[in-house]
Amino acid sequence: MMALSQTISGFRSSRWFALVWIAPAVLAGLFLLVLAARGIRASEGGQSFVTAFPGESALPWFAPVGFPAWLAWQHGLNAFFLLFIIRSGWLVRTTKRPDAYWTRNNSGLIKTPGKPVRISLNLWMHISIDTLWLLNGVLFYVLIFSTGQWTRIIPTRWDVFPNAISAALQYASLNWSVENGWVNYNSLQVLSYFLVVFIAAPLALITGIRMSPGLAVRFAPLDRIFPLPVARAIHFPVMIFFAAFTVVHVTLVLATGAIKNLNHMYAGNNGYGWGGFWIFAASIVIMVAAWIAAKPIVLRAIAGTFGHVGR
Fold it and tell me: pLDDT tens across 246-292, in order?
């Protein structure tokens, strides 16, 4: 009995104890949300609203149809980078005593001004992956604006807002209409992707640069208009937003026609073969393998080629 009592007491004091009431509360909230949405859709006003605004806003006449191969590669790389940005960012925030520290090597051919800054290995990983994510993002911006793909994720009509509400109502009622993302996203997707690409991503970049060791001191003159605590207060919620968006995005991709959606996103075709699924499965295997491999001993070896790693 004493051992059982100690076990229960230890569980109550752990950070996982909150799930005992949070998980049921979330499930109950989702259940009530579905009931409310179905009630609204069944009403005369709800039916009229969904008929007037089916959930999709018309695209400009010159909008392209389908997804090119480069967009599929961009999507896969972005998913990979985002996974490790969130992981390393969480470790930076929660690790009290880092396993190792990294200092840049200023004795090579490329020298940077100022005294080298000592940062944790987790922060080095975070900044390194962020740099790759940034390069991928710059290429993405160039390509979407040069190929017309921007028309699919930037609203061009005011009816995108009531249509987004309609799409949200259809999702919440678990009775969504048949759509074809190969031709046009629903309005809720358009607003979500716009928020991710043009608001959340730049916010993550700007606040990250403001917080970056070695640059924070140089940006000291900005303290009056952009204080460091403000950057920190924004940066972490943006990370939580990306994590939440990823969970919802993957859930809806799988729930609203997994084979079709995976073909769009990974195989670059509008067919119903299994190509997209197998590419997606292979990407998951790669991410899991990279997650397992990203241990301190491996990170030390990689980081050591770019600077000095020590305690």
Answer: 999 999 999 888 999 999 999 989 878 899 999 999 999 999 999 99
Specify the amino acid at residue 291: W
Residue 101 β-bridge partners: 120, 310
Number of domains making up the chain: 1
Q: Which domain holds residue 285?
A: 53-310
Asked if residue 103 is part of any domain, the answer here is: yes
Instruction: Give 140-168 pLDDT, tens digit per residue.
Output: 999 999 999 999 999 999 999 999 999 99
> Which token pair is 59?
């695209």
Q: How far is CA 163 from CA 35, 184, 185, 309, in A?
A: 21, 13, 11, 53
SS3 content of the chain, % helix, strand, coil (to 5): 70, 5, 25
Residue 17 lies in a domain: no
Interval 24-51: pLDDT, tens: 877 888 888 888 889 998 899 989 999 9
Give the C-alpha separation, 212 to 7, whole Å.
42
In a domain, 88, yes or no: yes
β-pair type (101-104, 118-120): antiparallel
* Rounded-to-integer distance, Cα 84 and Cα 287, Å: 9
Helix (H/G/I), strand (E/B), else coil: 308: strand
* Phi and psi torsions of 124, nearest 5°: -60, -45
Concatenating the DSSP letter of every residue in 66-114 gives: S--HHHHHHHHHHHHHHHHHHHHHHHHHH-SS-S-EEEE--SSSS--SS
Quick check: is 23 in a domain?
no
Which class for 23: exposed (0-12), middle (13-18), buried (19 or more C-beta within 10 A)?
Answer: exposed
Is the CA virtual torsion 218, 223, 224, 228 positive or negative?
A: positive
Element (H, E) at 46: helix 44-52
